[in-house]
Amino acid sequence: MCKTVLVVDDEIHIVYVVAIKLRNNGFNVITAENGEEAYELVKQEKPDLVVTDYQMPKMTGIELIEKLRQDEQTKQLPVIMLTARNFVIEDELKNNLNISECIGKPFSPKDLLHTIEDVLHEGAIVS
Question: Which pairing describes strands 79-83 and 28-32: parallel, antiparallel, or unpaired?
């Protein structure tokens, strides 16, 4: 079955590049430009994984993940966080919010694809 990934970033070129890479590798892709929009899409579309930017208008990536973790239906949803260069998310916060991976920008779309595949594969083994 084809997995669905929600890509959230206010930098549209990043969304575009990631979406093309994922679609070319057999994923369904839905996109959002901010955390608020992403939260609504998660509720409607029920993606298998979320790739979200940290810094966005309306709702940050951290606020989005906090909201997802408070909901019974989305608290286990795998999330990969994209962060600005040299921005570090503390391990404690990463663990508390159950963030699967943090990837710094700029990043390789190929490496992101492999990370997504790894996270989804690990989730398949556990459940």
Answer: unpaired
